[in-house]
């Protein structure tokens, strides 16, 4: 939040100064201002197109395509972040400016829209790229699998988590997994079990801080009232949800309700005091997992109160 | 001390190049190349120095033991691993060639009193390709889905025999090299044939990460492994990865995304028509891709492949004369137009 405000201030100042100087310079050299700026923008677009068409751009070993993510995909998601869910992100100073960190968040919303919003928050407000760890189902599905890789995410497995953390990346996990994202509306804002604590072991091995993160608002986008077990077994997906709008209104039921969102990053929990060997000590791992879970639940409760109504100004 | 080197698979491109580079090394007394076919079958001379000789041996037979004992071999470089069934012979003979051939060779090595170093070519296909696999494989990782057919399965079995051999003869230095897909002007493989098709079928909704090693780098790694002691298993690949979509765009050929069942059917039909081979393992590679970590090799040799994955692929395309295509021409024409408009005098 404060980052973007800061940028705007810069822009406002820039808007006063630079064009005047520039315009003077251009007038002096006898070149018109308009076509030059126009051509510059166009030629940048064309060189972008040329790189894309010839495949001359870089992806990292996980398949992360920075250019595509920044110039296309984030641009598409950003309006949803700003105008549909009106996300307020707080505590951005709690994410380290550099080096590895593990962001651990609650997961909800029937469809994992919260992962997308978290990515925008990290990119726009915190100014770091997040590398999320996803379920293997994601990587079996066509389209979703390569979109996930291209936007910087990878499979939730210790090898990939360790590798990313060693490279000093910010890794994000949703330890509740399907239990969290697919829980009923009546259980909203109640954290589910936190897997086996593999994420804690990875953080300890790498000696990076764990940043607890609470996301409020995703619970209300598709209130899940029930599911169709037969259909989900046939399709091989974890659940087929029934919401107030789906499947009754067909594709219209896929439009998420415009709830008000808040994302908060809590104070980092250090893991470098244990030493890498503690990653193999189940007691340390379990205790840290429980501690992280308690912290997130607490932030979640406070943030939910702070947000107030899910659909202001109606109810 | 000078060496006597046995190189298997010399009638194939990489084997011939390795035999040739070893033959011109002053520390090598002689090179004996073996294969089922003579290397000059395609009019290619691989031995400018005249210190290499060819012996025609069917690796599946025990003749190889006679060759080895007759020549006092001290270094064995085993490159005779076939990556795809040949048109005439088929899968059974490919498997026999790969697995039985390796067993016979290792049996001869185990008996030998002179062999001190064994270098075996394997492939990163042993890691398989799967949605459950980690993004980047290091040498110590097990595959998520063990390859159950084709080249990957053969290589997995070969590696098993090599490990057994290394256990039984701890006095011999054994280097096992897992090469990524080779690329370069002279490489002939299922993947190079795939990229030279006029239309490239891709798996709809998947964009796998691919990794290549340039043939020059592969030859250099094999030369170093044959001349120095580097025991262990090493991944060999160029730096970085290319996505299938990037490869396709670099070729400039049109691509047709097919849903994976259709891809399988078409592959079956194409194989039966004798056009190109599409094995199930290729389908999984073209869906999920694979990348490996090469840090161990770089640390061991103090040397890195000269070609990145992208550079290796570009060199392959240049050699085959496959640059650009229609979309590139359109973009270039547009930018020409813009430059003209922005600066009408220029």
From TrEMBL, chain A:
This is Glycerol acyltransferase. Signal peptide: none annotated. InterPro entries: P_lipid/glycerol_AcTrfase_prd, Plipid/glycerol_acylTrfase. Residues 101-218 form the Phospholipid/glycerol acyltransferase domain. Keywords: Acyltransferase, Transferase. The keyword Acyltransferase applies. GO terms for molecular function: acyltransferase activity. Pfam families: Acyltransferase. SMART domains: PlsC (SM00563). GO terms for cellular component: membrane.
UniProtKB/TrEMBL annotation, chain B:
InterPro entries: Epimerase_deHydtase, Lipid_A_modif_metabolic_enz, NAD(P)-bd_dom_sf. Residues 5-237 form the NAD-dependent epimerase/dehydratase domain. Pfam families: Epimerase (PF01370). It comes from the Bacteria. This is NAD-dependent epimerase/dehydratase domain-containing protein. It comes from Sinosporangium siamense.
């Amino acid at each position: 939040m404060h980052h973007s405000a800061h940028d705007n201030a810069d822009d406002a100042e820039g808007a006063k100064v630079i064009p005047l100087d520039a315009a003077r310079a251009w007038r002096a050299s006898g070149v018109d201002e308009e076509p030059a700026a126009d051509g510059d923008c166009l030629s940048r677009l064309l060189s972008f197109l040329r790189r894309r068409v010839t495949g001359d751009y870089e992806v990292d070993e996980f398949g992360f395509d920075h250019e595509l993510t920044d110039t296309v995909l984030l641009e598409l998601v950003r309006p949803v972040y700003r105008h549909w869910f009106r996300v307020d992100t707080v505590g951005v100073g709690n994410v380290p400016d550099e080096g590895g960190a593990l962001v651990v968040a609650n997961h909800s919303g029937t469809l994992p829209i919260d992962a997308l919003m978290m990515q925008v928050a990290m990119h726009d407000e915190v100014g770091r790229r997040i590398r999320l760890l996803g379920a293997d189902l994601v990587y079996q599905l066509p389209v979703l699998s390569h979109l996930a890789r291209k936007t910087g995410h990878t499979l939730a497995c210790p090898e990939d988590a360790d590798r990313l953390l060693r490279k000093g990346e910010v890794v994000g996990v949703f330890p509740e997994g399907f239990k969290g994202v697919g829980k009923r509306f009546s259980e909203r804002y109640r954290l589910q079990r936190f897997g086996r604590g593999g994420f804690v072991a990875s953080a300890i091995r790498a000696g990076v801080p764990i940043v607890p993160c609470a996301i409020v608002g995703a619970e209300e986008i598709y209130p899940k009232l029930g599911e169709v077990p037969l259909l989900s077994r046939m399709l091989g997906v974890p659940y087929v949800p029934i919401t107030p709008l789906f499947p009754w209104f067909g594709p219209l039921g896929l439009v998420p309700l415009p709830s008000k969102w808040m994302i908060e990053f809590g104070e980092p929990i250090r893991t470098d005091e244990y030493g890498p060997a503690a990653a193999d000590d189940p007691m340390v791992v379990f205790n840290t997992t429980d501690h992280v879970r308690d912290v997130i639940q607490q932030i979640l409760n406070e943030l939910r109160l702070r947000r107030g109504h899910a659909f202001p100004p109606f109810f | 001390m000078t060496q006597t080197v046995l190189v298997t698979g010399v009638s194939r491109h990489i084997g011939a190049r390795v035999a040739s580079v070893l033959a011109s090394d002053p520390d090598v007394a002689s090179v004996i190349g073996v294969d089922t076919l003579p290397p000059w079958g395609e009019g290619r001379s691989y031995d400018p120095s005249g210190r290499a000789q060819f012996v025609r041996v069917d690796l599946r037979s025990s003749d190889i033991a006679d060759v080895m004992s007759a020549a006092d071999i001290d270094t064995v470089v085993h490159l005779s691993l076939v990556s795809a069934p040949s048109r005439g012979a088929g899968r059974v003979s490919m498997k026999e060639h790969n697995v039985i051939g390796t067993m016979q060779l290792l049996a001869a090595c185990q008996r030998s009193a002179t062999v001190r170093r064994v270098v075996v070519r394997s492939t990163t296909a042993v890691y398989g390709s799967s949605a459950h696999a980690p993004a980047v494989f290091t040498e110590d990782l097990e595959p998520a889905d063990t390859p159950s057919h084709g080249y990957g399965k053969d290589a997995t079995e070969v590696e098993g025999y090599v490990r057994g051999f290394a256990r039984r003869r701890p006095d011999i230095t054994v280097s096992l090299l897992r090469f990524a897909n080779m690329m370069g002007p002279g490489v002939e493989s299922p993947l190079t044939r795939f990229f030279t098709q006029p239309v490239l079928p891709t798996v709809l909704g998947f964009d796998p990460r691919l990794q290549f090693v340039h043939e020059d780098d592969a030859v250099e790694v094999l030369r170093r492994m044959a001349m120095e002691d580097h025991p262990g298993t090493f991944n060999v690949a160029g730096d970085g990865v290319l996505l299938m979509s990037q490869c396709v765009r670099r070729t400039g050929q049109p691509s047709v995304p097919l849903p994976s069942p259709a891809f399988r059917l078409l592959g079956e039909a194409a194989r039966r028509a004798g056009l190109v081979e599409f094995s199930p393992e290729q389908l999984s590679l073209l869906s999920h891709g694979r990348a490996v970590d090469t840090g161990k090799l770089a640390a061991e040799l103090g040397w890195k492949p000269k070609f990145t994955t992208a550079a290796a692929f570009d060199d392959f395309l240049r050699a085959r004369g496959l640059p650009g295509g229609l979309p590139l021409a359109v973009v270039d024409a547009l930018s020409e137009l813009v430059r003209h408009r922005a600066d009408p005098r220029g």
